[in-house]
Amino acid sequence: MIASTRRWFRRNRTTFAVGAGVLGAGYLAGQYVLGKLSEARQRMSDERIAKENLRRRFEQNQEDCTFTVLAILPTATENILDAIPVEQVLEELQKQKAERLARSVGPSEIASSAAPSVTDDDGKSLTSFQSESYVHASQIADGESGNAEAGAGPASQASPKPKKTKAQLWNEMKIGSITRAFTLLYTLSLLTLLTRIQLNLLGRRNYLASVVSLASPPTEQSKISLENHDDDNLEHAYGNDFETNRRYLSFSWWLLHRGCLNLMHKVSAAVKEVFGSLNPREEITLERLSELTLEVRKKVEGATEEERRTCKWLPYLLPSPDQEDYVLQESGMATSTSSPPSPSLRRLIDETSDLIDSPQFTHVLTLLLDAAFSHLVDVKLAQLSYKIPPTSASTARIQEIVGADAKAKVANSLAIFCRQAHSIGSGANNEYLTAIESVRDLEAFAAVVYSSNFEFEAPEGGSLGADSSVTGGDSIAASQRTSWFGGATSESATASVRQSWAGADSGFESAWGKALAKEDGKK
């Protein structure tokens, strides 16, 4: 039996060998396929986690931008309110009114005649200002101290200031109220864009530093630790340097203290030219007020597409190179010895300047200003001055009919301008910032800033793929850039945006549509 079995195995050994080979090959092939599937599954999981991590970082960055704007906006507001003290003009008008009343009636009749006197046009306008506008505390203090000094010093008695007429004071209040409201709208829009650029550039660099850190293989710690002050340190080269970031963010000081005031002079000249001939007692429609507002914007931003594209906003946002040390010193970031900015800081400043001078910046700024001015004129002035009800699906036609015929005195609108200036510059519950941030192109612009130019962040200006230790980070970054634009890299998206600017203005939305795809997906 055993011998026959051996003979049978011997006769069929070839068949068994072939079968064993087939089974072995099948097993190996199956293991290979399972390994590839597991690797692909792991890669997809890593990419999904990486994309979610990038999205989470980006969304957190935008929230940080909002809080940062609300935190530093009051500084610019304080400077603009101090530069245009409308409340002091109002106080002077009230003082002149009291003096005229005292001259027209006897001292004993002032109390009984005060109430009827408010029924005249000037009285109504001043009452409107008292009820509708805020009085800045520092301006009241300055005004009281100024009056006390004027009454105390003999020099002031010898050379009193020439007294302004009522017409001059009303004209000054008209120009001042409108100018400071418009200036604050421009400042808020510019500050929003500047903050988005700054924090998204830093967010991009810090994110890239974390990717490189995770992708780089661990190295053994040397027993002797040596400090490296050169710029070839990975963390410093990628901008993950706390001191560099602080110095870079301090450049917003220029807009808050100098740029907003320089912009104020430009806006004031435009307001004087457009609103100068308008009588405060005159009644105008909301449509006429909107047209005058648009004329001011044309003089500030440019009347044509070409003028708006070539309008230079950089001098209002960043200092010139020869004033950079001055800004660092004023913001408390200057070192004991004056030295030029580090290469990492220099790259940040230069890239910020390039973004501000880009056509994309101008276009997005125009959209932000459209939203801000619309909220001021079409919402606040329409409701508070012209008593037009808020727009809704059921009242849209009613508002259109009422708004076409509704008129209001310019003086009443000036009171709303004066009050809204404080709302525009508020550091809490700012409706205007909410209206600005509802512009979807703002997030698209921030997404491009956050996800573009990864390859320029490598040390020594090299490519991310040049070093084998960073190749993994490069692939992750590339895949995440692709995820943001729905299959297009940031470079191609930016190129398409630039190309769209060469054509019609409507091409901008299509060029940025991919950047907004994720928002539509959420909804």
Structural account:
It contains 25 helices and two strands. The N and C termini lie far apart (78 Å). Helices cover 73% and strands 1% of the residues. It has a two-stranded antiparallel ribbon. Helix 2 packs across helix 11, helix 8 crosses helix 16 (343-356) and helix 8 crosses helix 17. The longest helix is centred in the N-terminal third of the chain and has 71 residues, at 13-83. It is an all-alpha fold. It has one domain. GO terms for molecular function: protein-macromolecule adaptor activity. It comes from Lophiotrema nucula. Residues 104-126, 142-165 are annotated as: Disordered.
Task: Detail the topology: elements first, then pairings.
Elements (H helix, E strand, L loop, with lengths): L1 H10 L1 H71 L2 H19 L5 H8 L3 H12 L4 H16 L1 H5 L7 H50 L18 H4 L4 H8 L3 H23 L7 E3 H16 L3 H6 L3 H4 L6 H7 L12 H14 L2 H26 L11 H10 L1 E3 H15 L6 H7 L2 H12 L19 H14 L5 H13 L4 H6 L4 H6 L1
Antiparallel strand pairs: 1-2
